[in-house]
Fold this protein.
Amino acid sequence: MKILEKIAVPVVAFSLLIGTALLAQAENVKIGNIEPMSGPSASLGQQGKAAREMAVEEINAAGGIKSLGGMKLELIYADSESKPEKGVAEAERLINTEKVHILSGCWNSAVTYPTTAVAERYGIPFVVPVSVADKITEQGFKTVFRIAAKDSWWTRDQFAFLKDMETEFNSPIKKVAFVYENGDWGTGFATQWKELAKKAGYEVVLDEPYPSTSTDLSPVVQKIKRARPDVLMLVSNAADAILLTNTIAEYNVKLKAIIGSGGGHADPSFLKATGKNATQIFDIVEWETDVNKPGAKEANEKYKAKFGQNFSGEAVDAYLAMYVIKDALERSASLEPAKIIEALRATDLSSGPGMIVGYDKVAFDQTGQNKHAALVIVQVNDVGKGLERITVWPKTARRAGYTPVFPMDVK
Amino acid sequence: MTRKTLERCAPLALLALALALPLAVQSATYMHILIVLLFYAYLTTSWNLVGGFAGVLPLGHSAFLGIGAYTSTILSLQYGISPWLGMIVGGVLAMIVGVLIGLPTFKMRGAYFALATIAFAEGFRVMVENIDKIGPFALNGPRGLQIPPLGFGLGKMLFADKEPYYYIILVMLVVVLMLTAFISRSKLGYYLNAGGEEPEAAMALGINVARAKLIAMAMSSFLTALAGTFYAQLNLYIHPKSVISLDLSFEIAFIALIGGRGSIAGPVLGAMLLRPVSDFSRIYFGDTLPGLHLIIFGVILILVMTFQPRGLQEPLTRLYHWVIDRLSSDRRTA
């Protein structure tokens, strides 16, 4: 009997908890979030959770959804473990059992694909803060809305940035070199680069994949030197980004610009291991803490105080996603999925606490992709406080008082 | 009722219950959990033909699942061939691959065999991840293949509701269980058993142990590949990390170990215990205590292995016989 008593207390407490939770749920807008809470990408899932919580706290504290009589937002989480089949099962559950009004997630593109298909089948709106694979918004679905930029836009923005630099500094670019790791990521970027270079009228003087586990990249660097490109574009993981940067400095290769593609160039270890050699390198990222947007600094401070780290690109997108949802709900004034989808489609958000991203607006195109999503380009430089990553592009987000160095100073 | 009729009726009653279950379960969530449960029971039963009866521990069965999933999906996406046909093609392909792996590896013992199968499955995954196309067949590398949720119907093995999936996998499970029961009472079953426990002794008796194991491997890989097609049609998306993952191979082995390797009911019992634990702990703790369900999984495995090394089927079989005994009219008084 002792054992029974021991079990009975927690069981009763648990059911009470669930009971009250059910009661409380009655008048909330339920947002189901499928994120990798455990498994290999758990830290990203946790960041997404932290950012969503911060946004929803703010929204609820400011009076919830006014057009729905001050209804509060409620977040429900489900763990995908980064596995597509778990994501699908959880989407089914969130829709059928939890009766969520909106879905959001899933960070891993591989989970987001099949999960958005479930939402489409049930006609539930699905807001994707960030999952980069192009295909997600190219399935012809009516219920999917993605806020962040897609894969092909990274390369697009790198070229747009080059064009802008050419005009801004009146320094024409003729020859480009592509050097990239030989995996799916690098070769995918290179395929798009080649097309873009053709369109932009640049001559490709070097197209060089390399294994990112190499311990010596001097043959690659010699090839770069011989090809004499104006601009060198890279896709690298951490160790090879460091090796390339140091070897390029050693061989004194003269270039107008070096442009990284995030990944290794954005890794915290990169600046530590390259030091001065990384000066004036450009890199493309989703977000940088110094972005010149009202409220960005404050939001980052708040986030840092709460969760002990800076906003990452992923976290900012998740934060913004909650404000996009809030905005749509204000306009739909209804919890009917079709009405919410209609409102999301008509989204035209350019201000408010969520808009701390590098671009100016959220508005979705026919496929559900945010047409204004863009990335930011940073330049590594020392402006008196040691080397740091300084946002330079788009111009509207550029750090006040900083002029990018283009072409690079000859060392 | 006599003992004999009871023993005959019990499985039929269970089957009738399983057939009627969708009438009681209205929620798509629970239907999905049940389907995945049956899917794992089926997979583990197929695995059991080699892993249980032949006494070796293959840990690379996800490779066969992958072959099945990819074959039928590519055939249906690119050539419009019904997954039902693709399923068989995938099964035959997997069977050939299974035999090719079995030929050299069945000479190995214990951990070496397990390691060799892991190596094969991992190598296979890396290959698929790095191949965009084999001739005209687009594998799509690490990006995987997606089946558009359009054009539902039996011929396309694509359904808007959960019930058809439930009945398909239930039938598949019943068939493979009947096959297992048949084999365990056939000469092949005895050969496998003997070869698994005492290969030298079995060979001394003139049993071709290697041949028996190869036959078991061929059947097992064929059946596993069929489940691959089912997986693809249920989840509508496959990529190397989901269908050819070590996680999946291990989970199959866990279910078999907990349920009881080498028994007919073991895999089903293992799936019935582990799948709900995994699903419900993820549902309830996935948010607040992420990762807890994996710990629960591990603890159960340790406890069962320590206290019930032959799996849960042993005490449950005893219980089953006791119940049958109580119910039957011609009670044995032993």
Remarks:
- The CA atoms of residues 109 and 131 of chain A lie 5 Å apart.
- Chain A has two domains: 2-149+294-345, 152-285+375-397.
- Chain A touches chain B at residues 37-38, 42, 45-46, 76-79, 81, 83-86, 88-90, 92-93, 95-97, 110, 113-114, 117, 120-121, 133, 135, 139, 184 (CB under 8 Å).
- Residues 2-25 of chain A form the longest helix (24 residues).
